[in-house]
Design a protein that fits this description.
The structure holds two protein chains of two kinds.
Chain A: E1 6-11, H1 18-34, E2 38-43, H2 48-55, E3 59-62, H3 73-80, H4 90-97, H5 99-108, E4 116-120, H6 121-126, H7 133-140, E5 144-148, E6 158-160, H8 166-174, E7 179-184, E8 188-196, E9 206-210, H9 218-221, E10 227-230, H10 237-254, E11 259-267, E12 273-279, H11 289-296, H12 301-311
Helix pairs in contact in A: 1-12, 4-5
Chain B: H1 16-25, H2 37-43, E1 51-52, H3 65-83, H4 93-105, E2 115-118, H5 120-132, E3 138-143, H6 149-155, E4 159-164, H7 172-184, E5 189-194, H8 208-221, E6 224-228, H9 244-252, E7 261-266, E8 278-281, H10 284-297, H11 303-314, H12 319-345, E9 351-352, E10 360-364, H13 371-382, E11 384-385, E12 387-388, E13 402-406, H14 412-437, H15 483-488
Parallel strand pairs in B: 1-11, 3-4, 3-5, 5-6, 6-7
Antiparallel strand pairs in B: 2-8, 7-8, 9-10, 10-13, 12-13
The chains are: A alpha+beta, B alpha/beta.
């Protein structure tokens, strides 16, 4: 059993994923209390740093999702004040949160990720980037997925089935971030592989199965209640093994620490696996994918928290 | 897979698989109570630094504090014990008298025995569904419809058929076509839900010929109508139109008895939503079931606030109407301020309705702009919020280039600033679209709502113009009259 500590649980914040983060934070707080720790919940806002300095915890548990919590902002601050914290460091956060950067890194490392291009809003204004859209269309083809480079909310993830739908989809995605990723759409099964430090590294795979065939509708696809999760996913052994290997490779490539969740697609046509993205602070409610996967591996929620917490001191 | 072994023991550990146990315990209706990213985002707009034109709020700041204190003191002096006690399910007689007076001001004579006092108008929607709707039953509603009714309809597992409205409200020929189609499919709606005056969120008013025809159709086909009329007295111009209830009563030809209209009224917009008092006027057999339903829901509405209402109404003859007149003046100039601001800041392709009363304007943008995304942008970069159009559609997909704007709850300078900020975000998106398509002009939305097809002022006889519209986007909470508190709460998660 670990020694009792004072743990600041950072949650909430101002991102679109605030609500999920508050739920994650609440679950984490309960679990840490059960483990005997002294817990201070902090809804992240203007008073974050002064609040941390005043509370003087031994460690911060980062349960923030989305901007600020996952993009390295908070991690950088925690390092500046010398407070140990859970999860990945600033550079891994930047690499994972920026889907364009992560995809470039994966592509360069030979990890399969769907073909893509990224565009900055400023380049449309300043560099005439709109004129490049036609070549991107012919390169990637339709249907195409358009998403903000940063941000984990289902909002902003658009599906364009034709050239005519593309401008609206791009403007929609630009509403959430100044950079967007245009990606070839891969039809297939959604898989999530959570990775931890220590053994086992890759947890059993969770498959997200849409309840309705909402192929064109990314928002509902990620809506609670519209999706059923199956864990462990029913897959051929070699596919499972391959997906877990890929996830661990990506985790290492991007420099993650403590825990992360890697999302993949199993191509319906080719049977190939494609890596989509990595979440450095995946959801931590009991129904979130990482805790489900851990549970499937025989790691209870509180044990999972203990492992994540311990990794804060093993950086 | 193995589960539960080897982990530190917790008996209280809420393991993922244990959640599945709850899943099995939840009623199937909870599956209809869905969360959405849009609704979660709406919850984020409730921040002090955000100018919110999203609420359904009236302005309660104009109610004199001294009067409030005096009335509450009267309630205490005259009946502390009664105020603190349970009351009758149907409501206190003195409160029902006030309701009769309000209905008379709406031009509608009613029999006090046909009234049930409810906990806000929202409860009427809930009780009517509870009374009439089995899973899979059909409700016909307007498109767009009151966003706060959407979760109620969903919770009762109703199938909702939405009829696109235009500047004159629900087109009855479209209604009849829908009814015919449903009949051909062997489906019969339980009721038709309409907000005839200054519709929420569309802002339009159903014309008199349509009102008559709607009641005729309901009578021909033996269908109930739920007439939701929270703002009828908040008319800023034009002549009041008769309620569906009064038209049905006339057609029934017997004194005071409507056959087919369930009328929903509320004190929320003419006095205060915090009182949580509304009412239904309904045919006797329906009323009895509503009463039984209410017994199961909350036994009775608060006697404290019911006594407050009766004290308020008897302070001086007609004083309550003077307060309503004050609200009309206040809201009229706020509405006009919003019209001006929209014309100045929303750009050429935007269109909007021109409500003659109520609280809301429905604006529709270039069809390629999704107002849910616009809200995400406007919230973070401009600090302003509105209700995306999708919230007013059961499918949360239609109405994606429209938005609902509340002009009643804020001072004029805030309205102007809020609209300016939204306009700035729109300008950015339209500019970007122009760059991407090589054109400068936008495309006017042709949403499916008829609201949108008219250019900005809508024409027409009754004077309500309908601006452009198209559906809305997704929202989280849609406020409105009494529904407010309820609508705002996130029910999804």
């Amino acid at each position: 059993m670990t020694q009792a500590m004072k743990v600041a649980v950072l949650k909430g914040g101002r991102s679109l994923e605030r609500a999920v983060s508050l739920r994650s934070g609440a679950q984490v707080e309960e679990g840490l209390r059960r483990l005997g720790h002294e817990v201070v919940g902090m809804d992240v806002g203007n008073e974050l740093v002064p609040g941390l300095l005043e509370a003087a915890p031994d460690v911060a548990f980062v349960a923030l999702h989305g901007r600020e919590g996952e993009d390295g902002t908070v991690q950088t601050l925690l390092e500046a004040i010398g407070l140990p914290y859970t999860g990945s460091g600033p550079s891994a956060c930047v690499r994972c949160t920026d889907k364009a950067l992560a995809k470039h890194l994966m592509a360069e490392a030979g990890i399969p990720t769907p073909p893509f291009r990224s565009l900055r809003e400023a380049s449309i204004r300043d560099l005439g980037a709109a004129a490049a859209v036609a070549s991107i269309e012919s390169e990637l083809g339709f249907p195409m997925v358009v998403k903000p480079a940063r941000g984990g909310s289902a909002l902003g993830v658009k599906f364009a089935s034709s050239s005519g739908e593309l401008p609206g989809a791009m403007v929609g995605a630009f509403s959430y971030d100044g950079t967007i990723v245009l990606e070839r759409h891969v039809a297939g099964r959604d898989l999530a592989v959570s990775v931890l430090d220590g053994e086992p590294r890759a947890l059993p795979i969770v498959e997200a199965v849409p309840r309705e065939e909402s192929f064109y509708d990314y928002e509902s696809r990620y809506q609670i209640g519209m999706t059923t999760f199956v864990c462990p996913a029913e897959l051929p052994t070699e596919t499972t093994t391959r997906a877990q290997e890929l996830a661990v490779q990506v985790y290492d490539l991007l420099g993650c620490h403590g825990f992360a969740r890697v999302d993949l697609l199993l191509d319906r046509d080719s049977g190939e696996l494609w890596v989509l993205e990595t979440n450095v602070v995946p959801g931590l409610t009991e129904t979130s994918l990482l805790p489900q996967a851990a549970d499937a591996a025989g790691i209870g929620f509180d044990d999972l928290l203990s492992r994540i917490l311990a990794s804060a001191f093993d950086r | 897979m193995k589960r539960g072994t080897g982990s530190g023991g917790g008996s209280t550990r809420p393991a993922a698989h244990e959640l599945a146990r709850y899943e099995a315990l939840f009623a199937s209706r909870t599956k209809g109570m869905k969360s959405s990213a849009m609704r979660e985002m709406m919850a984020l707009t409730e921040r002090p630094d955000v100018i919110s034109l999203a609420g359904g709020l009236p302005d309660t700041s104009t109610f004199p504090a001294e009067l409030y204190a005096k009335l509450m003191a009267e309630v205490a002096v005259e009946g502390t014990a009664r105020a603190l006690q349970y009351g009758p399910t149907e409501g206190m007689a003195a409160t029902v008298e006030c309701i009769v007076e309000v209905m008379a001001a709406e031009g509608t004579e009613i029999d006090p025995a046909e009234v049930i006092v409810t906990t806000g108008g929202q409860q009427v929607i809930d009780l009517v569904c509870k009374t009439l709707i089995d899973p899979g039953d059909v409700i016909v509603a307007e498109a767009p419809t009151y966003p706060g009714a959407v979760p109620t309809f969903s919770a009762y597992q109703a199938q909702v058929e939405q009829i696109e409205i235009d500047a004159d409200g629900m087109p009855i020929d479209a209604l009849e076509a829908t009814l015919d189609r449903l009949a051909a499919e062997g489906r019969r709606p339980k009721f038709i839900y309409t907000i005839p005056n200054f519709q929420n969120p569309g802002g339009v008013t159903m014309s008199l010929p349509r009102r008559r025809r709607l009641v005729e159709v309901a009578r021909e086909r033996e269908l109930l109508i739920l007439e939701d009329n929270p703002y009828g007295l908040l008319r800023y111009e034009g002549e009041p139109l008769p309620t569906l209830l009064s038209l049905d009563t006339q057609m029934a030809g017997r004194g005071g008895a409507s056959d087919l209209v369930i009328y929903l009224g509320t004190f929320s917009k003419i006095l205060s939503p915090g009182l949580r008092l509304g009412w239904a006027v309904a045919p006797r057999p329906v009323l009895e079931k509503l009463n039984l339903g209410k017994q199961g829901s909350d036994l009775c509405s608060s006697p404290v606030t019911q006594m407050f209402v009766s004290a308020y109404f008897r302070q001086r003859e007609g004083a309550w109407l003077e307060y309503v007149e004050g609200l009309r003046d206040l809201y009229r100039s706020r509405r006009d301020a919003m019209f001006e601001a929209l014309a100045e800041h929303f750009g050429e392709t935007a269109r909007w309705t021109r409500p003659e009363g109520g609280l809301f304007i429905w604006a529709t943008l270039d069809e390629r702009i999704d107002t849910t995304d616009l809200l995400a942008l406007a919230r973070t970069t401009q600090g302003v919020a509105f209700v995306p159009g999708r919230a007013a559609y059961m499918d949360e997909r239609s109405g994606s280039s429209s938005m609902r704007l509340n002009f009643a709850g804020m001072p004029e300078e805030q309205i102007r600033e809020g609209v300016r900020r939204i306009g700035k975000a729109i300008g950015e998106q339209v500019g970007l679209l122009g760059s991407l398509t090589g054109s400068s002009g936008g495309r006017a939305g042709t949403g499916k709502t008829g609201l949108g097809d008219a250019p900005e002022q809508a024409p027409k006889d009754s004077g309500e113009a309908a601006g452009g519209q198209e559906g809305m986007a997704d929202v989280v909470a849609l406020p409105r009259r009494e529904g407010d508190a309820r609508g705002r709460r996130r029910r999804d998660r």
